[in-house]
Specification:
261 residues; globular
Length: 261
């Protein structure tokens, strides 16, 4: 299957999301706004100065918003793999002249633009109201690249977790554990700078940090040296996780062939 065909899958999903914008994307955006509102309100009520020295209050507001936005981008891959395996549709997908993982990736990327547009449409006014208009153009420009790498890492981890279903027939429990790990060490509810030095070094080196913490941080507090470090580490994790996903899919393909789907 050529690149043009994967691009066709991407465009198809985008068009479907455009048609269902008010039915799918906007409700999801409202949920993200509620999460942002609750999280920001907690920090405002408890201690505004908690992260002074790390972030200003405005930076903290935008950090929390971007963390929520990044995590909300492109959901449902594990459920899709679960459904394909449980219904036997995966055997049909594997027999087609294209890569099943790459087709999932094209679909995954296609699900992001309209959802992201709807979310930003709602959360940007909220961010300006709560934290002020303090974003910088170059931070947004290069931050978008980090966000793209971040959602790719998230996809690859989700793909690897989803493929566990080839052996267990249900990967939801593993996804639940992964989602809680993202909350704890991904920087979802607080910057990882709050961890003690020893623990902080460890959690900042884990993949979840490069999915949420670093991209959200650099969008509000940009640094060229940290940008280069983060981009390099993200590419390293993408290469590593791609290799793991490839090996898992290769073994899964053999399993499907032996079991006849």
């Amino acid at each position: 299957m050529t690149f043009a065909a994967y691009r066709g899958l991407f465009k198809t999903v985008v068009k479907e999301d455009m048609l269902n914008f008010f039915g799918d994307s906007m409700p999801s955006a409202v949920v993200t706004l509620v999460h942002c509102l609750v999280t920001v309100s907690i920090y405002a009520a408890v201690q505004k100065t908690l992260f002074y020295g790390i972030f200003s209050w405005g930076m903290m507001v935008w950090y929390l918003i971007f963390a929520q936005v990044i995590l909300s981008a492109g959901k449902g891959i594990i459920k899709e793999i679960n459904a394909d395996i449980q219904t036997g549709a995966v055997a049909t997908a594997m027999s087609k002249p294209y890569s099943y993982p790459l087709s999932l990736y094209a679909t995954f990327l296609g699900s992001i633009p309209m959802e992201l547009f709807g979310t930003l449409l709602i959360v940007i006014p909220f961010g300006i109201f709560m934290g002020g208009a303090m974003l910088q153009a170059h931070a947004i420009l290069f931050g978008v690249l980090l966000v793209f790498f971040a959602v790719t890492i998230n996809f690859l981890i989700s793909l690897c977790i989803g493929m566990i279903a080839f052996w267990t027939e249900d990967a939801d429990p593993y996804m639940w554990l992964y989602s809680k790990l993202m909350f704890l060490v991904g920087g979802m509810f607080f910057p990882l700078d709050v961890f003690p030095a020893t623990i902080g070094v460890i959690v900042k080196a884990l993949p979840p940090a490069f999915i949420i913490y670093y991209p959200a941080k650099l969008l509000v507090k940009f640094s060229w040296s940290e940008f280069l470090y983060v981009a390099g580490m993200q590419l390293l994790y993408i290469a590593l996780l791609s290799s793991i996903a490839y090996l898992m899919f290769k073994r899964a393909t053999k399993k499907v062939m032996v079991n006849g789907g």
